[in-house]
Amino acid sequence: LKRTLVISSIVCCFIFLINTPFPFSIPKGFPPPVYQFQNNPRTKEGFELGRRLFYDGKLSKDGNFACGSCHQQFAAFATYEHRLSHGFNNQFSFRNAPGLFNLAWQKELNQDGGVNHIEVQPLAPILDPHEMAEELNHVIMKLKNDKSYPSLFNLAFGSPEINSQRILKALAQFTASLVSADSKYDQVKNGKAVFNEYEKTGYRIFQQKCASCHKEPLFTDGTYRNTGMDLDPTLNDFGRMRITGRKEDSLKFRVPSLRNILLTFPYGHDGRFATISDVLDHYSKGVISTATLDSSLKKGIALSDNDIFYLKAFLGTLTDSAFVRNPLYAEPR
Amino acid sequence: LTKKLLILFYFLAFTSFQKKLSGTDLVYASSQNKSAKKYQASLQQKVTAPQPMMNIHIKLQFEGLPIHLNEKYPNQYERDTFSISKFRFYLGRLSAIYPDSTKNKKNVSGYYLIDLSDSSSLHIRLPVSAGSCKGLEFQIGIDSLDQLQGAQTGVLDPIRGMFWTWNSGYTNLKMEGASSASAEPAHQFAYHIGGTRDPYNTVFKLDMITTDHILTQISKGQEVNMELRFELALFFQKLEPLHLSEHPVCTTPGDQAKNISWAFLYSFRDFGTDIHP
Fold first, then answer.
1. Shortest CA gap B202–chain A (Å)
2. Global pTM value
3. Closest chain A residue to B255 measured between Cα atoms?
4. Could you tell me if the ipTM is greater than 0.90?
5. Residue-wise over A288-302: b if at least 16 C-beta within 10 A, else e?
6. How big is chain B by its Cα radius of gyration, in Å?
7. For each of chain B's 277 residues, which pLDDT tens digit applies?
8. DSSP string for residues in A35-78
């Protein structure tokens, strides 16, 4: 009987080694995600492969620019303190790197919504000559020639074959798994913590003046809006209009989530606002009126100095320290 | 009893193992493009009853002669010459048209990437139903719904260079070359045509009815040949007033891309008049 047990446990281990299911749990109060790992069942092996690829410079032309070099975990996967990120051959990126979290709930990706599916998003930075500047067949070749990748692909997908689809699906298993839902705000909502007086007042102001666009619990309604930032002629970034070709979409960008907001400075699609105070000042007295300005911002947002003080206190409760320290999302050692 | 339990355990382990393997296979197969599936289905049908096949030969021509890469051709509209260095497009959703103008909805094909530099891509085997047929319905480009399926393989693998990364979607057509009429660097011209968002949708279907309206009779086990001819001279004629000199580059969705897409579709000869988007 002992031998049988030993053999059976070996068989068991073997089976689980091939494919370990890794269920995705939806945080309490969150809507169902857009990406539900359809045709890409989340497994421990697929996730680990995706995580490794995310942090591997091999995905870039000169080996220096992994996804994780501009999407830093301690900055909620934005680029810390950089207006624009740095890419191949001393170049700036076109836009401020957004934080990466709760991507599974995003219908479209990139700040202009140009990317229609989370699995194909990495193609944009990998092939962009200002960012990772690489070609897909080079990436595949480099991974095939690597000592460990063929066996990692074997573990994740059942054969050592490496192709673009498998690379992208593995990356999606990692990026769609970046869930941030354990901030003080979430703990308060779940009855595990309480706001102090400042935060409570700030939350009330937030609900009155910000929540229509920065809708809870994701703190974005996923729409594209012109928030009164004038065109920077050195970038000529017309936002959503680049994608749709429609004049009425000129200067519109997706409403960003406010989760982890204190970690993702500078702000704005081009990083023009260095601090959160600059952003709030913009809404209270800097909104520039153009044809496509959002109707809710025609008069800006009336914010007193007190309002700004309390709002900042509330925004601090959206920092998810557990998320930015979670070893599951860190660079593998 | 131990022995029986052991056998039962192994059986369960084995089936779950198989399930896992077939599970990953299934995922892999479902992400393949539909043409591969259709092809497998046609292979299976072959065992029972011979499936009639239509061999479609795609002829890419200039004034009736085959186009060769990097060869100079006269452009009568601008009194200069041009050459083609890259010519690829997606052809798909092919189905036979019956004499009463209904279509064979059972055998609608997947997508094919036609590439002038790869002669094997110029021949398509399409399973059809027995009966008579007066033409073909097809489209240039990928349906908008099929563009929302994430990472793909086969002809839809982004490695084929037909995927737009910054504005997700497949280009219908890539035509690049040189013309002295173009003032761009090295006198290049480049048409990367695509887009499925309204009002700039560029994916259209075309009914191509054989010129003389002769019905092709297809019986069981039979293979019939059909030619689908694209005439480049017609394309340039239809591009007027889109002169190469004025518009040498079109690489984003918009009005111009839409016009070029229509011109391209209409440059398949022997077409019927029934175009429906």
1. 13
2. 0.85
3. A245
4. no
5. eeeebbbeebeebbe
6. 23
7. 667 777 766 666 655 554 444 333 333 333 344 555 555 555 554 455 678 888 888 999 998 899 999 999 987 776 788 899 999 999 999 988 888 888 888 778 999 999 999 999 999 988 887 777 788 889 999 999 999 999 999 999 999 999 999 999 999 999 999 988 888 888 899 999 999 988 899 999 888 877 655 667 777 777 878 888 899 988 888 877 557 778 889 998 999 999 999 999 989 875 433 333 3
8. ---TTS--BHHHHHHHHHHHT-GGGSSSS---HHHHSBGGGTTB
**Does A8 contact B9 at a Cβ distance shorter than 8 Å?**
yes
Q: Is the alpha carbon torsion for A68, A74, A78, A80 positive or negative?
A: negative
- Sign of the CA dihedral A101, A107, A109, A111? negative
How far is A180 from chain B, CA to nearest CA, in Å? 23
What is the separation of C-alpha A84 from the centre of its chain, rounded to a whole number of angstroms? 16
Whether residues A123 and B163 touch (CB distance < 8 A) is answered with yes
Rounded Cα distance, B49 and B43, in Å: 10
Name residues whose C-beta falls within 8 Å of residue B127's C-beta, 6 or more positions apart in sequence.
Answer: B38, B41, B42, B45, B51, B52, B53, B54, B107
Structure tokens, B71:
């060869």
Looking at residue B133, its amino acid is C
CA B198 to chain A, closest CA, distance in angstroms equals 8
User: How far, in Å, CA of B194 to CA of B164, rounded?
Assistant: 9
Q: Determine the 3-state secondary structure of B211 from DSSP.
A: coil
* Alpha-carbon distance values, B223 to A192, B54, B227 (Å): 72, 6, 13
Cα A183 to Cα B6, B47, B222, distances in angstroms = 49, 61, 68
- For residue A119, which amino acid is it? E
